[in-house]
Amino acid sequence: MKNPFILASGILDTYAETMLRVAEDAGAVVTKSIGMEERKGYENPVIFEFEHGVLNAMGLPNPGIERFGEEMKKLRGCRAPVIGSIFGKNEKEFAHLAERMEEYGAAAVELNLSCPHASGYGMEVGRDPALVKAIVRAVKEAVQIPVFVKLTPNVSDITVLGMAAEEAGADAVVAINTVRGLRIDLEFKRSVLTAGIGGYSGPGILPIGLRCVFELKKVLRVPIVGCGGITTWENVIEYLMAGASAVEIGTALRNDVRLFKNLGRGVKQYMKRKGYERVEEVVALAHQNR
Ligand SMILES: Cc1cc2nc3c(=O)[nH]c(=O)nc-3n(C[C@H](O)[C@H](O)[C@H](O)COP(=O)(O)O)c2cc1C
């Protein structure tokens, strides 16, 4: 990776064209989560924006793994490594999806064990450490490329999931996916989203993501990718200091596709000012200064 900034799954990444655009500035890009079959997702409204971030319940819309091969073909010349995000019901589905992503040329796969609003998928499998272990093991046996495991914050102890992933051979963990949340429409007297409860992202979840990375760093040896609520270069440094080796960004990119460039400038200037030459020197500093 040419820098530590990764496009998070689900934002600007259903089509190759937007991914290629973001990849000009990114260290890597993650695809939208792809499953076995095409899914239309929920009826609108699936997204609700407010002052502290975004609430979404899209329902994992995607073209299915066979048709997604066409997008992956267009990504062959991509300037950044492409990480294939996948979701399935069980280890068999995950292993199959990972094999296809590897055949399509993905540099790594990211297992979505954390989507909070799709029945039978995501967080529903990713909350159980035994299932996490079985899925990661099956995928590790199926592919040669690195396996990233994206964890849910919607549990009482995220480290149990992180350790399950590491024990099963995960090459990295990604923390966090969205936080379960709800807003209510006063006129309709019901959730603002068709699906009811959604996933909260954007600035409001920054402290939750940082806390999860900090806790995971205390117990894991594999690299951690921090994600959740980043909007400024200062937020990136915070994630690095909490223990992340790289960061994923989603919501903030929706309004600013050149964001990575600006964040990079800020991070570089800070490092220069403090006398750091490599990002690795900043990683986990907050653990030394407790
Ligand atoms: C509209 C939307 C769609 C998303 N779709 C996915 C997805 O398909 N797979 C996944 O693993 N995460 C998905 N996410 C979660 C993001 O990848 C990320 O983990 C989360 O939004 C927190 O980061 P952020 O605050 O920078 O957006 C989605 C988030 C949003 C806002």
Question: What is the secondary structure topology, with strand pairs?
Answer:
Blueprint: E1 5-7, H1 16-23, E2 28-30, E3 47-50, E4 53-56, H2 65-74, E5 82-86, H3 91-103, E6 108-112, H4 123-126, H5 129-142, E7 147-150, H6 158-167, E8 172-175, E9 179-181, E10 184-185, E11 190-191, E12 198-201, H7 206-219, E13 224-227, H8 233-242, E14 246-249, H9 259-274, H10 285-288
Parallel strand pairs: 1-2, 1-14, 2-5, 5-6, 6-7, 7-8, 8-13, 13-14
Antiparallel strand pairs: 3-4, 4-12, 9-12, 10-11
Bound molecules: flavin mononucleotide (FMN).
Which distinct ligands sit in these coordinates? Answer: flavin mononucleotide
Indicate how many domains the architecture comprises: 1
Number of strands: 14
Q: Count of DSSP helices?
A: 10
Gyration radius over CA: 18 Å
| Sequence of strands across the biggest β-sheet | 1-2-5-6-7-8-13-14
Shape designation: globular
How much helicity do the residues have?
25-40%
CATH homologous superfamily descriptor = Aldolase class I
Q: Report the span from N to C terminus.
A: 30 Å
User: Which architecture per CATH?
Assistant: Alpha-Beta Barrel
Query: If you average the pLDDT, what whole number results?
Result: 96
In terms of per-residue confidence, which ranges show pLDDT below 50 for 5 or more consecutive residues?
Answer: none
In CATH terms, what is the fold-level topology?
A: TIM Barrel
Main β-sheet: number of strands, strand sense, barrel status?
8 strands, parallel, barrel
CATH top level assignment: Alpha Beta
Structural class: alpha/beta
